[in-house]
Amino acid sequence: MILFLSDIHLGRGGDATDREGEADLLACLRAHKDEVEALYLVGDVFDEYIEYKTLVPKGYVRFLALLAEWADRGVPITYLVGNHDPWHRDYFRQELGVRVIFDELTTVHHDHTVYLTHGDAPPGSKGWYRYLKPVLRHPLPVWLYRSLLPGDTGFRLARWMNRKFHSEELKPSTKRLLHAHALRILTDTPADIVVMGHSHQPVLETVSRGLYLNLGAWAYGRTFGTLCNDGLTLLRWDGERSVVMERSALPGS
Prior knowledge:
Layout: E1 2-5, H1 15-31, E2 38-42, H2 61-72, E3 77-80, H3 91-96, E4 99-101, E5 105-109, E6 112-116, H4 129-137, H5 139-148, H6 151-165, H7 172-188, E7 193-196, E8 203-207, E9 210-214, H8 218-221, E10 223-228, E11 231-237, E12 242-248
Parallel strand pairs: 1-2, 2-3, 3-4, 6-7, 7-9
Antiparallel strand pairs: 1-10, 5-6, 8-9, 10-11, 11-12
């Protein structure tokens, strides 16, 4: 089983909400630990994340410990950053054994080519973020931000910006743009499965010659996805077990 999670948004709620979200996340991962061949975290794992040379944001040590435990026993873990958590350095790779990807990724599982990306600023996007995203990913402004602002100040400013300019409910146009992007990938590339997040709206559907899975948001719906030999599945964790929402046979089956 290949397991996909997106938009966990650790840090978005208060302490009680974060503890509940982390506890549910750990319970879900542990329920599947004997089946998982690889784990993909498809962006916005944290609601804000700024890693300095010698400092990382505190909290969520139980989740991080589980990632390290899985990596130590040989489970490949890949973290594709999102629009809320792009400022990683080397902590996840060196300390936890997690591969961090700063853009899209194409890989092969169960003889199918899978394209993964968080989905922020898809082609055709309008608004200020499509111009800001390259700036936020460029090494120079990131270095200046880390260098000129003390750690606590930089983190508080990032948190304020997230609260000010981001909402839990994304525009309907975002869902349409992600759908159109998935169609382009399935039409123009070898990929026959596309997995994204960002929209906070879970979707599993047949598009063109393949399948499009949007993972929704773990933070708000406890949704996630799996890829097995028998199909691609969208699921929801109900607090005790995984509940199938939709399942599609793999292309060519």
